[in-house]
Amino acid sequence: MNRRKKKKQPSVNYIELMKQKWSSIDGQAMKDKVAATWALLPKLHQRALMVLLPIVLLLILIPFPESQLEVTQGEPQRVEIDINTTGLSEQKNARQQQLASSDWKEYQVKSGDTLAQVFRSNNLAMSDLNALVKVEGSDKPLSYIKQGQLVRFKLTEEGQLDILQLEKKDQSVMFFRLSDGGFGRSK
């Protein structure tokens, strides 16, 4: 381990040093330099500086009041806000009610049917089927449908698939549309 001793620094009197620097400033030479620089500026710039410089100096020198916010201690105050709590799915207009029924539709799987054929025969979008397969899970309820199995589905007001339910014996698997347009699966 390297243990060097630090050399002792000579003490510096900073106040005396500042006094020397201040006395060395030549006021007349500085005024001459400012006047020469001022004369080089265009008249428009000189006028702009004559207006802006006093304003900036005033803004720097004028004290601004402290924050006007007062923190009150005690009980918090309640504010009443009128909010429409009706969900978007509950806000139906006449046109949307005509497009699709809110009733469940059922389809009994026939021999040799695939889920793609079920979607085609019920005029459901194949893009929805692709989205459902992505969240199908390891038990593959969409891939292994059998004859006699009940497929129930519900459409949105726009006519898109909203909920799909596959029933097999005493089990039921449900897929539902998420707010981002994709699908989720019940456990």
TrEMBL record:
Coiled coil: none annotated. InterPro entries: LysM_Opacity-associatedA, OapA_N. Residues 104-187 form the Opacity-associated protein A LysM-like domain. It comes from the Bacteria. Keywords: Membrane, Transmembrane, Transmembrane helix. The keyword Transmembrane helix applies. The chain crosses the membrane at residues 48-65. It holds the Pfam family OapA_N. Residues 38-64 form the Opacity-associated protein A-like N-terminal domain. The keyword GTP-binding does not apply. This is Lysine transporter LysM.
